[in-house]
Amino acid sequence: MDKTFAGGKLRHLRESRSMSQADMARLLDISPSYLNQIEHNSRPLTVPVLLRITEAFGVDTEFFANTDTARLVADVKEALLDEAVGIEATTSELNELASNLPGIASALVKLHRTYRNAVETTAALVTENGMGQHGSAAAPLPHEEVRDFFYERENYVGELDERAERMASDMGLRRGETVHRTLLDRLTDHYGVQVTSDGIDESAGQQHRYEPDAKVLRLAPSLRIGQRAFRMASQIALLEYDDLITELADSWAFSGPAARSLARVGLANYFAGALILPYGPFLSTAEKYRYDIERLCDEFGVGFETVCHRLSTLQRPKARGVPFSFVRVDRAGNMSKRQSAAGFHFSRVGGACPLWNIYEAFTSPGKIITQVATLPDGKSYFWIARTISRNVGGYASPGKTFSVGLGCELRHARRLVYSAGLDLDDRTAATPIGMGCKVCERPACPQRAFPHIGKQLTVDENTSTFVPYPAVPKPED
């Protein structure tokens, strides 16, 4: 059993109660010197002391778990690698900061993002010859702010998830087509909302429109039954829990009304997924089928992307599923969705890695592609990816195609049906990937599109190399 070193968390718990070390030591029946050693990670937490802490302070034992700080470490490293900062901290230094002072590390990351936004906005204004126009493309986009909002919550919103599960139970929501009928009855009987397919202009791209004054919800005829159910469930969220959704949206410092409204939509959609796929039944079914996504689609009557997104939210304390990261990209590499319940880091600099299987999926439409991928820090992940397509209208009508990826740490891979027959212990078979060329430390990658930030380039007019942007080698000691 691994030893639990949690000095930073214990110190934070003590200081949040305005207690001295002597006061806490007295409460826990240990010596102040022993407590001091625990807080400085010189001694691990023992089980008896841990039990006394949980009893005295009412915190769960998971509060002191050795949580994965990889994502925070990567965020801090990305900030420090900025050419304007110019600091190259060691991995051990970053781990120590993220583990013992996570609040300071998070503040550093937020300050850097604010700084970058200010620099980019200033540069855009200068480019506009001092005209002072607002709405520059350099400013943070609303959907990016909302992605950060869910990212910081690790893609789990317990306040909505638990209420959705209770509502599903109270309504007697059953899997399959009866879900659509039950939700329709709920809107009609409980809220007095009429649901119709009339009055929707699909040629303009409309999928649904709610008219609050008339209490009419208009759904596009082309929506599949699962999509219609999702739209109805989202509307129920806004009708039943408008105050809670507003409170959750107001808890984040969004830049303006557009981002705040988009966050409300995202929260309503989160509730919809949790209502149609209630936590307990969905988790037990996922475990039963070993996270076979297509069987879950058939079982619950929803699409591939909906199931993948729901799987990435199963992080309720004491009832956790596999901690997945979820991503959706298009052919051009644009990442339109990214959520993570694990330590996987999505870089904000320089795009994603072309060696990642989420891009390979476009070469085999509709087929699930698996990959064991290793990051530069040595951590390995198991990824599955598949394309999804959606068309509205007839022949030659524009449609959309995405690749959806779902990944977890390699240690969880054996719980998935997709790992059957694979040698997960063969690390030589893993694909080395990075989180964007500008921050990737792999010097020998032939797919590198940009040089590494903060690294001096080797430029020799008389030599060419297969690897683009070769870095100057470090001098030997």
From TrEMBL:
**Keywords of this entry:** DNA-binding, Transcription, Transcription regulation
The record's GO CC annotations read: cytosol
Give all residue intervals belonging to the HTH cro/C1-type domain. 10-64
Q: Which organism is it from?
A: Prauserella rugosa
What name does this protein carry? HTH cro/C1-type domain-containing protein
Give the domain of life.
Answer: Bacteria
Q: Which is an annotated GO molecular function term of this record? A: DNA binding
Gene3D superfamilies attached here? Answer: lambda repressor-like DNA-binding domains (1.10.260.40)
Q: Which Pfam families match?
A: HTH_3, Peptidase_M78, ScfRs
Classification via SUPFAM superfamilies: lambda repressor-like DNA-binding domains
**Which family, according to UniProt?**
Belongs to the short-chain fatty acyl-CoA assimilation regulator (ScfR) family.
Q: What is the lineage of its organism?
A: Bacteria, Bacillati, Actinomycetota, Actinomycetes, Pseudonocardiales
**Transcription regulation recorded as keyword:** yes
InterPro entries assigned to the protein according to its UniProt record, in alphabetical order: Cro/C1-type_HTH (IPR001387), HTH_RamB (IPR026281), IrrE_HExxH (IPR010359), Lambda_DNA-bd_dom_sf (IPR010982), ScfR_C (IPR018653), TransReg_Diox_bact_type (IPR050807)
